[in-house]
Design brief:
The protein is α/β, with parallel strands linked by helices and 586 residues long. Helices cover 57% and strands 9% of the residues. The chain is built from 18 helices and ten strands. The strands form two sheets. A seven-stranded mixed β-sheet has the order 3-2-1-4-8-6-9, with helices on both faces. A three-stranded mixed β-sheet has the order 5-10-7. Helix 13 crosses helix 17, helix 14 crosses helix 15 and helix 15 packs across helix 18. The two termini are 49 Å apart.
């Protein structure tokens, strides 16, 4: 497409910039600023879709320009040796990050870049009310019984004849939580079977592996639902028929949520969730590399047994399973249509904890299975296609490189500030502020185009989604950074009990962000006061202040969520009663 010519233009300009940095400002103006002006103007004269088509290559161009400037500054020897060493480390780490950004940007923005698709993202419209026997499995641990009962009631009215429902309650100590669910299963009839298991290891994956030993002998398809998901009556009748193809390994439908419309906080979380399911997973499915997303999914039972069941060592046992199913040669489907609705965490602490698990798991997958993803003869034997290898490798590598580059970038900023305070010089170029502003505006425009044009979010809720995504900035790199030296992480469930306002105590779960934001603000203030006045000092202070704002967006959102609870901005759900158990991990 013609827009990507911008990237080639920047590459040529960057080569010029590396040799004495002649014309670096002119290069950036031609390859970044001018397209940015067009980008900001086209939504006024054309469509958001057109704006998005330009925004993607501009984003890549700006990152390449930043690396080119950094390489030039290091090569020409400007600044103190400490500052140049820090920039060199950042540059080395930034190269693979930009390479992954090329793919990541395209996958996340592909729905802005193309109008036709090779594979359908719409499930069969015709329902089939009988067919292969399905074992629907609902794992739960210390869940509110009213939530699980509502999930089972929704399953009881499926417009499909041949299915069973297995509820596996693992390690719930309080009988007041699991006995009402057991009794309700008995009332629903013999189709519903309840298992309460003590001492079961492996959290959710352990419960699902246990269930595989107790399914109906006739069952050829397994469906998995989280304990809070209320499935639509056509969930099975529209999706099970895809297993007529013996090559189909699993089918995944979009995650969706309920009870968020009346809450400014929850509506922001909802649209932040929608971005991945409406963009990234659609792009993966187009290349036959969909992933299992843990709930509202169906899996061929024989394939699940063939690859060894669910991985109890992995925080993302769902997407890890899809990697092994692809390696075994099975096909996958993902549909961007909702077949059920779950609950959004009512507190930022729960939202944050859930995201930490989601981003650490792919890193575990990459470290365990990297030999499967190697090209050619160097790879472990599998039936994965080139797209399978690339996209599964990207799934973990993007998280690990983002964590490393963010940590190194913050360290580099701290070093530059310290050098300035001590009276030293740092590498600087007039083009750097242009690139920084360009990156911020372009990233914001991309998110806005996706939320408004592709997903259809109202403007106010789109702005809340951007805030929610920004508030997760710290946890998305801090949770993954340990994956560089360890693959172990406790599996922590998402609490579905009703939350209550805590006031300033709501800040306790985000104390790392509060502390880090204070440190960045202190560093920015100290640099501005103690360092010599100049453009470099102003730029470094602005960078440090930006890091402080990123960190503090999390506690601000935590207080916003707490305010939503204390002022009853959200109507209480009839499914969440005022029963709060002791904190316990699965």
């Amino acid at each position: 497409m013609s827009e990507w010519a911008l990237v080639l233009a920047l590459a040529a300009g960057s080569a010029v910039a590396l040799h004495g940095r002649w014309g670096s400002v002119d290069v950036l103006l031609l390859t970044a600023v001018v397209p940015m002006v067009c980008l900001m103007a086209r939504p006024l004269t054309g469509t958001l879709h057109s704006a998005g088509r330009i925004a993607v290559p501009v984003s890549v161009a700006a990152h390449l320009a930043l690396l080119a400037w950094c390489a030039s500054a290091v090569a020409t020897g400007e600044g103190a040796w400490v500052a140049r060493t820090a920039m060199t480390v950042w540059l080395v780490a930034g190269v693979p990050r930009v390479l992954l950004l090329l793919l990541d940007a395209y996958l996340n923005q592909e729905r802005l870049l193309r109008d036709t698709w090779r594979r359908s993202h719409v499930p069969p419209a015709r329902e089939r009310h009988s067919g292969p026997t399905v074992s629907v499995q609902v794992p739960c641990h210390a869940e509110p019984p009213e939530v699980v009962v509502a999930t089972l009631d929704a399953l009881a009215v499926q417009r499909y004849a041949d299915y069973e429902v297995l509820v596996i309650d693992n390690n719930t100590a309080d009988p007041a939580l699991w006995q009402p669910v057991r009794d309700h299963c008995a009332r629903l009839g013999e189709r519903f079977r309840f298992h309460h298991v003590e001492g079961l290891a492996g959290a959710k994956a352990g419960a699902l592996n246990y269930a595989m030993g107790h399914i109906d002998s006739r069952a050829t398809v397994v469906a998995v639902l989280d304990a809070d998901y209320q499935a639509r009556p056509d969930f099975l009748s529209r999706l099970v028929q895809l297993f007529d193809d013996p090559r189909t390994g699993f089918v995944q439908s979009r995650h969706d949520y309920r009870d968020w419309h009346d809450s400014p906080y929850l509506s922001g979380c909802y649209w932040e969730y929608r971005q991945m399911y409406g963009t990234y997973l659609v792009a993966r499915a187009e290349r036959g590399a969909a992933i299992v997303a843990g709930t509202m999914c169906l899996i061929r039972a024989s394939a699940l047994r063939e690859v060894g069941g669910w991985a109890q060592w992995c925080s993302s046992e769902d997407s890890e399973l899809s990697l092994r199913l692809h390696a075994a040669g099975y096909r996958s489907h993902y549909f961007d249509e909702s077949f059920g609705h779950g609950l959004v965490p009512e507190t930022f602490a729960g939202y944050r904890r859930q995201r930490a698990r989601w981003v650490f798991g792919p890193a575990q997958e990459l470290r365990r299975h990297w030999r499967l993803m190697l090209p050619g003869r160097r790879a472990r034997t599998s039936r994965m296609t080139g797209w399978h290898k690339l996209l599964h490798a990207h799934h973990g590598a993007r998280e690990m490189t983002r964590a490393a580059c963010t940590a190194i970038g913050m360290g580099c900023a701290a070093v530059l500030g310290a050098v300035l305070v001590c009276g030293g010089a740092v590498p600087w170029d007039p083009a750097l502020p242009v690139v920084a502003v360009l990156l911020a505006l372009n990233g914001l425009t991309l998110r806005w185009c996706l939320l408004r044009r592709v997903l259809g979010a109202p403007a106010r809720q789109a702005a809340r989604a951007v805030w929610a995504q920004t508030a997760l900035h710290h946890i998305t790199w801090a949770a993954v950074l340990p994956s560089w030296w360890t693959t172990r992480r406790p599996w922590r469930r998402t609490d579905k009990f009703p939350a209550f306002a805590k006031g300033l105590a709501a800040l306790w779960p985000v104390w790392p962000e509060v502390t880090l934001g204070a440190l960045w603000a202190l560093a920015a203030t100290a640099t501005g006061i103690l360092a010599p006045t100049g453009a470099a000092t102003f730029g470094v202070c602005a960078l440090l202040a930006w890091y402080a704002c990123l960190a503090w967006s999390a506690p601000l959102l935590a207080l916003r969520a707490d305010r939503a609870l204390s002022t009853a901005e959200r109507s209480p759900s009839s499914l969440r009663e005022a029963h709060v158990p002791a904190e316990v991990d699965a």
